[in-house]
Amino acid sequence: MSNRGKKYKKAVEALGEKKVFSLQEGLAKLKSIAYARFDESLTVDVNLGIDPTKGDQVVRGSLVLPHGTGKRSCVLVFAKGEYAEQAQRAGADYVGAEDLIEKIGEGWVDFDYAVATPDLMGMVGKVAKKLGPLGLLPNKKLGTVTFEVESVVSGLKKGLVFFRNDKQGLVHFMCGKLSFGEEQLHENVVAFLRSLSAAKPPAAKGRFIKKVVVTSTMGPGLQIAVEEL
């Protein structure tokens, strides 16, 4: 903690000696010790009881949070003809094909989600090395490679968000902003954890959710009592 600023250290001191909190208490604490001059995000980090090296234990899913994330999603769609028209009707921010591929090839990636119709994935493959590492490559398993363009784009604009475990078996998920009310944050976190629990792969044995930590952009992480969730 020696490299942390005075405000961070003061926030940690305000937590006292308690190490594990109920979800309601933890959210209240994070809001009370917030010191940043901007509206911080609330992130939930979950340590899962899976072997992330095994393909049959990958955890992924999606949901629309009850109160959204507090962030407007920018959606790009690779589509032509009637599917491009569907995307525009649903509120997509960028719609195109070769023109978008060229723009991305030049380094532009100013969007949050990318959707593509299956017939254009060969073209999208040209920029896969740019989009893949950023988590922006359309993915059939996530439902972003589809001809159901209108419904998918509509869901994304309404706040549909995705989650997936990383190489360490952790899931990091944004559940809103600290400016949200405590009850709103609580409902968002509970909705996420329920969706996460429902995504437990059959191959995963034993305790699935091992540890839960909530944190704000600038604040310390607070461990939440899993038994109470």
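(ticket continues) Second input and output from the same batch:
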Amino acid sequence: MDDTVELGVELLDALEHEELSLAAAVDRIETVTEEPALTREILETAERRGVIEREGDTVVPTTRNYVSFESDVVSKEGEFTCRRCGAGLSTGHFVRFESGEHGPFGSSCIRKVTGRE
């Protein structure tokens, strides 16, 4: 459970949005966990640590620790299922965080999850 919370907080820490809706933030967190209690804990922990600020139904990332696609994202060949959209993948993209790798994602979903799109 602690690893899941840490991974979720790191994911929020890496978002490249000026702001996003709470629903969009939860969409990203659901790539880590679909348990409502853990989702709430991730949001609360991120807010307590100053990673995000919550203004009603808006989440504002505060740290600007963006994912570097050159050094923080690795691609692996194989048979994968995207953690965001459920599509079958022959190339999975994984984000390397301190608490572990997060993925696999397809090429467009990795950009969506990190806030590049």
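Agent notes: The first strand starts at residue 20 and ends at 21. The domain at 2-61 is CATH 1.10.10 (Arc Repressor Mutant, subunit A). Closing as not reproducible unless the customer responds.
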